[in-house]
Amino acid sequence: MTSPTPTAPTKPVVRAADPRTARTRAAIVTGYASLLRDGNCDVSVRDVVTAAGISRASFYTHFDGVNEVALILVREMFAGLGAEYLDERLRTGYRTSEAVRAGQERLADAFWERRATLAPLLEGGQAAATYIEIVRAFAATIEQLLRHDLSRIPAGIDPYLAAVAIANTLVGLLSAWITGSIDADRDLVVDHLIAMLPAWVSQPDSPA
């Protein structure tokens, strides 16, 4: 009796992601952003679905609420700031005190310009959870930047933990500023953002 010929294992069928999902999510985020640009500070789900041209059911298929959409814009903001920083480092080749200040100015300006989006997130019923999400998003960008220059990190310092600590410190001050909890002008806020950075982050390089 002959043994049966073994058959090749069946490969799992990999289905491509439905492009309609990506389009709908993009329409929601774009619609939300357009409402903010038009000066609408209190954006509702009804506003977003009208701007995006979708139904409420479709919105809730992708997001739990407008705060979740806002956090996507926050992550994009941090990613953009990180890209600007890396581009500047590539142009100069080293870190200057001017570059350090410029980076913190961009951060402060980004928070202030988006205060209509950020302040409601930081003052609403889910403020504590949202604050943590903002810190996580910022920490992810900071960690990426730190790993581009590992030689600057002191021995025993974990890049991720350092990124979380830095993000929490800076977001704490910026959150208080844009929500009116503190009375300070932009230059004073930037001064303190720089002062609160670890020395190994803020210290300029010596050009070769």
TrEMBL record:
Segments forming domain HTH tetR-type: 22-81
SUPFAM superfamilies: Homeodomain-like
InterPro entries for the chain: Homeodomain-like_sf, HTH-type_TetR-like_transc_reg, HTH_TetR
Record-annotated DNA-binding residue ranges: 44-63
Keyword Isomerase: no
Record key words, sorted: DNA-binding, Transcription, Transcription regulation
Lineage top rank: taxon: Bacteria
PANTHER family reported for this sequence: HTH-TYPE TRANSCRIPTIONAL REGULATOR BETI, HTH-TYPE TRANSCRIPTIONAL REGULATOR RUTR
Name the UniProt record assigns to this protein: TetR/AcrR family transcriptional regulator
